[in-house]
Amino acid sequence: MDIATRIKEIIAHYQLTSAGFAHKIGIQPSSVSHILSGRNKPSLDLIQKITASFTDVNTHWLITGENEMFTNVITNVNPKNKEPESPIITEKETEVSKAETILKSTPTLPKANTSKQKEVEKIVVFYTDKTFDIYKGN
Description:
This protein is of the alpha+beta class.
């Protein structure tokens, strides 16, 4: 399956028209039409716009067609205390654990005197087989 077909799957999943999809990611409808027809290939900028607008879409899947369409890790939550009871494990768990370990082991530098709290926006992990995964923060 090519990337245009995967983009069509995203459009169908979110029950959008191609124009609605274009509007949501901030591009011209004609650009989406050209990609879906096979006239043009999507650029890296377009892929970034898709994954920024549809944060649960697996970037690796979008680019290569491998793995699952979505990256969400689902957990069973105890309704009494809102704490996760037992996670349903996905194939991403190992990569997420590695990313969390890297974040925890990264030394913290003294912060400038600021009132704003910084949060991690995303982590990009590059693999030796020239693939990558993007993990987005909260």
